[in-house]
Amino acid sequence: TETTENRPFEADVSRLLHMMVHSVYSDRDVFLRELVSNAADACEKLRYEAIASPALLGDDPRLAITIAADPEANTLAIADNGIGMSRDEMIEALGTIARSGTRGFMDRIAEVEGQDGAKRGAQLIGQFGVGFYSAFMVASKVEVVSRRAGASEAWVWASDGKGEYSVAPVALEEAPVRGTRVLLHLTDDAKSYAERWTLERIVKEQSGHVPVPITLVEKPGAEAASLSDGAALWTKSKSDISAQDYTDFYRSVAGQYDEPALTVHFRAEGRFEYTALAFIPGARPFDLFDADRKGRIKLYVKRVFITDDAELLPRYLRFVRGVVDSADLPLNVSREMIQDSPLLGAIKKGVTNRVISELAKLAEQDGEAFGKVWENFGAVIKEGLYEDFERREQLLGLARFKTTASGEGTRSLKDYVAVLRENQTAIYYIAGDDAARIASSPHLEGFRARGIEVLLLADPVDAFWVASGLDHEGKPFKSVTQGAADLGLIPLLDSDTPPPAEASAEVTALIAAIKETLAEDVADVRASDRLTDSAVCLIAAESGPDRQFERMLAAAGR
Ligand code: ADP
Ligand code: MG
Asked: What contacts 73, CB < 8 A, 6 or more positions away?
């Protein structure tokens, strides 16, 4: 049809747009990063599709992004000659919210609102895949003209962001030969986004490392000036890359605004050759505890983006961001085939080993920096203790714990075994949800009185790995809330305290009375050298789940 069609936004989009305009305000620069990143994604998609269908590139094989400002008209256009969108794709992509993460986004925004909400909210946009709509933070009207690669029709999408958008066919002369042009009619308070200096600054800061060249046209008719050459940072040699380059690249690949806590950049040579550039974020990504536990490492083949869906790292390293580029896969490999290729296995192994060994190095050389990494990601890394048996020892070596002896800091198992008491046969722990509460548990009395250190485990994942039967340097992990304490052979620190009066007649009589009263409610009642001040505590049977694990199972209804 030749008529303009008006359609309402999906309800969630309307809500989101309202929030964008009214609360996610202070850090509006991000809109440009989002639109440039969409343009770059579109170019990368075409680059990939053109492997199988080279004709899609026509006589315009050089993929590029052009930012064109018009200070007089107060407009800004971001154009790419990438894959483009058909009418249906436009309606799907620019009228709905495709990714499931968006609910999470809205909840998060609501959560951070009020505090330093505006700024943090803006920073969440890129992580949640709702970038396009951020255009409405600076524009009163947005027009998107797009022609899909290979198509003989073009479409224009337009909206003022207030509940509705329109789609209409557009004459081919008015559309780009291929790809998409997003035209923003800037609001009065966003005029500076049509100025060269502002645009240069923001693009260099936020998009200097997108793998597609970016040029700027300062005003209509002016010559295009290059802002960024689109070279792939990871292919350069380390000595040519500054710390700032790495940070900028990290930010664009991770969609985060923090500093990377650790950068791992290496070339693997030998049977399989590939380059990896991986970062450990300085802050937790918001999808860290999502149920799908997916990673987001991007896989490239000879600089062509293939997928960010290949499992390039184990789940317990899902917070690592970055790229892997290999020349060893055929370019026309299907995304499905990749998952089964031996190269992928080699990459996974190689990158995992490297990330873990770099973490170990950091732990040795800069305890404070490593402490922050562990604070952010330790709870996730510990999943590896029961999922990656081969690397258990290494992962245990990285683990840091709050213990009865750690004070404000943390302790490693190496620290722990260095101060074992004589005759101590186990590494003791207590698990629970609340670090402060478990630290004051009566179960610890007898251990404290003997100077035996106890690990205080307060992450939900802890109940699982301690139950998986691992040990360290021949010492099993043992819950202080389970089974016999066996502390009789370890002397009290304060030798004046009398030994436990297990054998006395009064105790025997008391135990008998308690047993009779509680009858079926308990399996056993016994004197214990676990306690020094408290009268009684509950413990779990020697085998089976400990008290914390019992509670978790009960909470899960089992
Ligand atoms: P995301 O990029 O995370 O998917 P966005 O809100 O930024 O989320 O974009 C939504 C979708 O709109 C993209 O996934 C893409 O399908 C489409 N899109 C946006 N900009 C372009 C563009 N320049 N070229 C082609 N498709 C685009
Ligand atoms: Mg996007």
From this structure: none
**β-pair partners for 457:** 431
pLDDT in tens, 16-28: 888 777 765 567 8
Stated as kind and residue range, the H or E segment containing 428 is: strand 427-431
Closest approach atom of ligand 1 to CA 182? 23
The two beta strands, 274-280 and 427-431, are unpaired
Mutate to test the pocket of ligand 1, among 13, 34, 38 (most ligand atoms within 8 A of CB): 38
Reduced DSSP (H G I as helix, E B as strand, rest coil) percent helix, strand, coil of the chain, to 5 = 40, 20, 40
Query: Mean pLDDT across the stretch 263-275?
Result: 93
CB 179 within 8 A of CB 42: yes
pLDDT (average), residues 279-298:
88
Q: How many angstroms separate the alpha carbon of residue 130 from the centre of ligand 1?
A: 8
Burial bucket for residue 266 (CB in 10 Å: 0-12, 13-18, 19+): middle
Count the neighbouring beta carbons within 10 Å of the beta carbon of residue 144: 23
The per-residue pLDDT for range 240-268, each reduced to its tens digit, is 999 999 999 998 898 888 899 999 999 99
pLDDT digits (tens, 9 = 90+) for 140-150: 999 999 999 99
Tell me: is residue 130 an annotated ligand-binding position: yes
- What residues does 434 pair with on adjacent strands? none
Closest ligand to residue 176's CA: 1
DSSP 218-251: -STTPPEEEEE----GGGS-GGG--HHHHHHHHH
Tell whether ipTM is more than 0.90: yes
Pocket (CB within 6 angstroms of ligand 1): 34, 38-39, 41-42, 80, 82-83, 85, 93-94, 129-132, 180
